[in-house]
TrEMBL record:
The keyword Metal-binding applies. This is Recombination protein RecR. SMART domains: TOPRIM. The gene is recR. Keywords: DNA damage, DNA recombination, DNA repair, Metal-binding, Zinc, Zinc-finger. GO terms for biological process: DNA recombination; DNA repair. Belongs to the RecR family. May play a role in DNA repair. It seems to be involved in an RecBC-independent recombinational process of DNA repair. It may act with RecF and RecO. It comes from Candidatus Roizmanbacteria bacterium CG22_combo_CG10-13_8_21_14_all_34_12.
Length: 210
């Protein structure tokens, strides 16, 4: 590293700060950028420069967008009455890549995590409650009334705590709202021998008619 020019060294050191990138990978990526055609490198630099300037949060669901409303919320073919609540935009992309869901989303941008000092007010829970409240108000005729909320937070301790908190809040505000949780169980190709107790328990509880 010490024998590299400062410009190349600085790029490598920055890339090393990215998740999952070690020193050797950072060096390879830095050399890859160095060997790019000038036009491609300029295009890459412009896109990086515009990343913070152009990217904003959708005012409805808090997905990333370059407009006021994201493409999903603005799509009249999506079922606007169903909201899938996810922790991150990456979780949203997982649903979209599989094309398995045709409703809209609400991105929390985190989960309740007391150990890391993340409380309900630090993520987009109040915004979710207000969004649902507005759809059930006198102004509901101007838009679609939300009838179901799917809690799609991750099945870990913090994700469960977040789902329970949201569920309790929503039931207090609106008893008619349908609240559902993603099913747990065994992944395709799994072997029962290696499944843990809680996975088997959830699989039994969530069994379907065959």
């Amino acid at each position: 590293m010490s024998s590299l020019p400062n410009s190349l060294k600085n790029i490598s050191l920055f890339l090393e700060r990215l998740p999952g990138i070690g020193e050797k990978t950072a060096n390879r990526l830095a050399f890859f950028l160095l060997n790019l055609p000038e036009e491609d490198l300029k295009e890459f630099a412009e896109n990086v420069s515009d990343l913070k300037l152009k990217t904003k949060l959708c005012k409805n669901c808090f997905n990333f967008t370059e407009k006021e409303i994201c493409e999903i919320c603005d799509n009249s073919e999506r079922d606007q009455s169903i909201i899938c609540v996810v922790e991150t935009v990456l979780d949203l992309l997982s649903f979209e890549q599989g094309r398995i869901y045709n409703g809209v989303y609400h991105v929390l941008h985190g989960k309740i995590d007391p150990l890391n000092r993340v409380g309900p007010d630090d993520i987009k829970i109040n915004e979710l409650i207000n969004r649902i409240k507005l759809s059930h108000s006198a102004k509901a005729s101007l838009g679609t009334k939300i009838t179901e909320v799917i809690l799609a937070t991750n099945p870990d301790m913090e994700g469960e705590a977040t789902a329970v908190y949201i569920s309790n809040k929503l039931r207090i505000k609106n008893s008619e709202l349908r609240i559902s949780r993603l099913a747990y169980g065994l992944p395709m190709g799994a072997n029962l021998e290696y499944a843990d107790y809680m996975t088997l328990k959830k699989a039994i509880e969530g069994r379907n008619k065959f």
